[in-house]
Specification:
This protein is of the alpha/beta class and 930 residues long. 48% of the residues lie in helices and 11% in strands. It binds a DNA duplex (9 and 16 nucleotides) through helix 26, strand 16, helix 31, helix 32 and helix 35. InterPro entries: 3'-5'_exonuclease_dom, 5-3_exonucl_a-hlix_arch_N, 5-3_exonuclease, 5-3_exonuclease_C_sf, DNA-dir_DNA_pol_A_CS, DNA-dir_DNA_pol_A_palm_dom, DNA/RNA_pol_sf, DNA_polI_H3TH.
Length: 930
DNA sequence: AGACTCACG
DNA sequence: GACGTACGTGAGTCTT
């Protein structure tokens, strides 16, 4: 038979906490019900766990009855100073019993005992019967009961707590907690304790001496101090305190254990209660069917599944999406109700709607929230007003909404869920809002499914794949092309359907992804690498980098002149004018008209005119080819960089704000768009001038910190190549070392070839590819590869093992556990398969490098702050490089911190057998910092 | 929309 | 015998 699992709900404890954490709400009868709402939402959440693995089979709500207990007989001052409960809480106490009855749950209270004692008694009885117990409470006294088979569950923080939690919070094991509590006392309950001893000292003493009696016995021999005197003087108070905090676990059971069996939750009484109280969001969900919970019996499958540490998603079928259940929030009362619902659930999905895709300039138009399936709303704040004749729809003032939401979004006890929260964080940061703690479903999806045959991790696709649901398309709401309107002009009913659906879908995706993260081993990379990076990236985007418009404009002019001159020369050489940018026309001129050799290529049958062909023709003496190459370079630089970049300068900040994607590159790298600041020229002197346009504010400098050869170092570690490892450890030039090993001699030529081969290895080499790069025969290239494998044993083993692993399990992994899937690794077509194999060889190396720099970025802010360097700003990431702007005077101190953080970024999760090297440069511009 | 080319790591 | 030649990106231009 399945393991019985008893949930004991500390109802009295909960109601006080809910009362203080939730905004005041009133029911249709005008009675205050904020705490009742929180309590109801909590029971709802517990009910949703029925049937889940580790979910309850038995449940009871335990309440205090009366105020006089046996502890008062023991000590008349016990709880003597406790103020009477607030006026508007008192009438809510009986309603708690109504709520409990509405869920058809037993409600247990016993005169003369506190709820804690009843809980302790049932816990002991259940353990004796071989059951598991979960105590739903956050009361520290109850933590004494934690033991194997007994945990605590804080529904507001959505946290399960075991012995580790007690150890972390109090520094002792649960069985020693009573002694610690006795020493430290409790001012709220008026447990005296020993004066001058707080939690830290109490834990230290108990750890050192074992228990309270031993501490008291040892006191006279302690070195003279106030503490020693206090321990001696107040030893009797300490002993009394010990008895007061002791939980009484040997009462007679008011109800037998079997009476607590859960049989399911009949809908009718629950519906009547919810209607009476006006709890609309919960009613919506009841209609949806989420609460029609099956009778509880743990299935074998459920019992076998590993229990996630957080609340399990609803095991019963979730209600299909019903847009008619969404609410448009236009009154303060309604907003309060949603905020209370979020507090009650401990989780809320959020999405912002704006009038632009550019998060750094977008204006907030509305916010949607979801607290459960179909329990979603839209709060318009900026609709209308774009047309002076149009009437603005009724909506809450922006400031009101911001002020009400700010505490919720920063509240530790409510998890915020969003799809691409980086965007919302950036938009809301301008209103002084911080979002924490949070989960981001786009990042979760990426960490689970990178590389799987999905087009991406966007919400529309995720909803289709995981929820079998088609979301309202954005363009169906705002139109497209010249008829497109701003979201601010969308009528509220349409806006609500669209926006609330986004929040609803986001929360549903979360319930799917969250347990998958644990089951599929993606929690580490998600929680330690990618999720903490989200706010870091949001801040970098918001900071931007200053760009010298005049410098770019001057370059544009110079490039234009160069382009014009080359155009004239090229047309003269061709004997006719033509569009040089058209590969078709260029091919016709070069190969048909001028008769140069170089065949057709590609399925289109067009001539190839790329850089390798033109270089070759140039080497053979074709003047026009050289000119076309120069023309192309200048055109590229002008159109893609000098012109486009000027247009990207934000008029308000005078800086360029790129957007980073955390989910764009399959390997885990970031990518940069609008504009892409990860491909600013550097390789040619002409292109490099563009980097000089990226400058620091007066009095500041740009600092660039690069990992040196990080991918080769990782290859040396991961493939375990002794010769390479030694070379890196000794600080040798790695390409020289390779040249020495392969060719027996080091000169410019052999070093260049060695460098090519080193990179080729990282990318999954083929003899033809290497042959083309080195302009040698395939046989000669094959010899070289064989020699490489011979000199660097480990490489070929790594390659074979990586491909094997990818084929067997479908994915590769980085040192930090990031997965990249390779569905095509079993493709029937050889070239497809080989392509996947090469990518699979590269992914663990490129991905580990990405993990490392991401961890450096996450740690950088706190490390700089700890060093008092809060004026140092991280601006850009370019795969193996971080770019900062900082006051000139901070250069020395900041360099040291940056180097330490970057070089140590892998630890302690991963211990590398090669050192990570970082090169740092500074200057007035990015160009000068290299 | 897709091919081509080319900028970066 | 044909395939198509190194991994990962994003943007601009031309063509369909």
């Amino acid at each position: 038979m399945s393991q019985n699992h008893l949930y004991l709900v500390d109802g009295s404890g909960y109601i006080f906490r809910a009362y203080h954490q939730l905004p005041p709400l009133t029911n249709p009868q005008g009675q205050p019900v904020g705490a009742v709402y929180g309590y109801t939402a909590m029971l709802w959440k517990l009910a949703a766990e029925l049937g889940a693995a580790e979910g309850p089979t038995h449940m009871a709500v335990i309440l205090d009855k009366g105020s006089h207990t046996f502890r008062n007989d023991m000590y008349d001052q016990y709880k003597a100073h406790r103020p009477p409960p607030p006026e508007d809480l008192v009438p809510q106490f009986p309603m708690i019993r109504d709520a409990t009855r509405a869920f058809s749950l037993p409600c247990i209270e016993e005169a003369g005992f506190e709820a804690d004692d009843i809980i302790a008694t049932y816990t002991r009885a259940a353990i004796a019967a071989g059951w598991h117990v979960t105590i739903v409470s956050s009361d520290k006294d109850l933590m004494q009961l934690i033991q194997p088979g007994v945990d605590m569950y804080d529904t507001m923080k959505n946290e399960r707590r075991g012995p580790d939690y007690v150890m972390g919070k109090f520094g002792v094991a649960p069985e020693q907690l009573g002694d610690v509590l006795a020493l430290m006392g409790d001012s709220v309950d008026n447990v005296p304790g020993v004066p001058g001893i707080g939690p830290k000292t109490a834990a230290k003493l108990i750890t050192e001496y074992g228990d309270l009696e031993k501490v008291l016995a040892a006191a006279p021999d302690m070195k003279p101090s106030k503490m020693r005197d206090n321990l001696i003087e107040h030893s009797e108070m300490a002993r009394l305190s010990r008895r007061l905090v002791e939980l009484k676990s040997d009462m007679a059971l008011p109800e037998p254990l079997d009476a607590l069996t859960l049989k399911g939750i009949p809908e009718a009484p629950l519906r009547a209660f919810l209607e009476h109280q006006g709890f609309k969001a919960l009613l919506n969900r009841l209609s949806g069917g989420a609460a029609k919970v099956a009778p509880t019996s743990l299935t074998q499958d459920a019992a076998a599944a590993p229990a996630p540490p957080m609340a399990s998603p609803v095991a019963a079928p979730v209600a299909p999406i019903d847009r008619s259940a969404y609410e448009t929030v236009v009154t303060a009362d309604a907003l309060d109700r949603w905020i209370a619902a979020a507090h009650g659930e401990g989780i809320v999905a959020i999405d912002t709607e704006t009038d632009s895709l550019d998060s750094t300039s977008a204006r907030l138009v509305g916010i949607s929230l979801a607290t459960g399936p179909n329990a979603a709303c839209y709060i318009p704040v900026g609709h209308g007003g774009t047309d002076m004749f149009a009437e603005k729809p009724e909506q809450l003032p922006l400031d009101t909404v911001i002020e009400k939401l700010r505490p919720l979004l920063a509240d530790d006890s409510v998890l915020k869920v969003g799809q691409n929260l980086k965007y919302d964080m950036t938009v809301l940061a301008r209103h002084g809002i911080t979002i924490a703690p949070f989960d981001d479903t786009i990042v979760m999806s990426f960490d689970l499914d990178a590389g799987k045959s999905l087009a991406g991790h966007g919400m529309d696709e995720a909803a289709r794949v995981h929820l079998d649901h088609i979301c309202i398309a954005f363009k169906d709401v705002v139109g497209s092309g010249k008829n497109q309107i701003s979201f601010a002009e969308v009528p509220l009913d349409k806006a609500t359907a669209y926006a609330a659906e986004d929040a609803d879908v986001t929360l549903r995706l979360w319930t799917i992804f969250k347990p998958r993260l644990h089951q599929e081993g993606a929690t580490r990379v998600y929680e330690l690498v990618d999720r903490p990076l989200v706010p870091v990236i949001a801040t970098m985007e918001r900071t931007g980098i200053k760009v010298d418009r005049d410098h770019l404009s001057r370059l544009s002019g110079e490039f234009a002149d160069g382009i014009a001159a080359l155009e004239t020369e090229i047309h003269a050489l061709a004997g006719q004018p033509f569009a040089i940018g058209s590969t078709q026309q260029l091919g016709a001129i070069l190969f048909d008209k001028l008769g140069l050799k170089g065949g057709k290529k590609g399925k289109s049958g067009a001539y190839s005119t790329d850089v390798t062909i033109l270089e070759k023709l140039k080497a053979e003496g074709s003047e026009i080819s050289g000119k076309v190459l120069d023309w192309r370079q200048l055109s590229k630089l002008k159109s893609t960089y000098t012109d486009a970049l000027q247009a990207q300068i934000n008029p308000v900040t005078g800086r360029v704000h790129t957007s980073y994607s955390l989910t764009g590159a399959q390997t885990g790298r970031l990518s940069s768009t609008d504009p892409n600041l990860q491909n600013i020229p550097i390789r040619t002197e002409t292109g490099r001038q563009i980097r000089h346009a990226f400058i620091a504010e007066p009095g500041n400098v740009i600092l660039a910190a690069d990992y040196s050869q990080i991918e080769l170092r990782l290859a040396a570690h991961m493939a375990d190549v002794p010769a390479l490892r030694e070379a890196f450890a000794a600080g040798e030039d790695i390409h020289n070392r390779t040249a020495q090993e392969l060719f027996g001699t080091v000169n410019r030529d052999t070093r260049g070839r060695a460098k090519t081969i080193n990179f080729a290895i990282l990318y999954g080499i083929s003899r033809w590819g290497l042959a083309a790069r080195l302009e040698i025969g395939a046989d000669e290239a094959q010899d070289m590869i064989s020699r490489y494998y011979e000199r660097f044993p480990g490489i070929s083993v790594y390659i074979n093992e990586t491909i094997e692993k990818a084929r067997a399990q479908g994915y590769t992994e980085t040192l930090f556990g990031r997965k990249t899937w390779f569905p095509r690794i079993t493709a029937p077509l050889q070239h497809e398969r080989q392509g996947a194999e090469r990518a699979a060889i590269n992914a663990p190396i490129q991905g580990t490098s990405a993990d490392i720099i991401k961890r450096a970025m996450v740690r950088m802010g706190p490390a700089l702050e700890a060093a008092g360097l809060d004026r140092v700003k991280m601006l850009l990431q370019v795969h193996d490089e971080l770019v900062f702007e900082l006051p000139e005077g901070d250069v020395e101190a900041a360099s040291a911190v940056i180097r330490t953080v970057m070089e140590g970024a892998a630890e302690p999760m991963v211990k590398l057998s090669v050192p990570l090297g970082v090169e740092i440069g500074t200057g007035p511009s990015w160009g000068a910092a290299h």
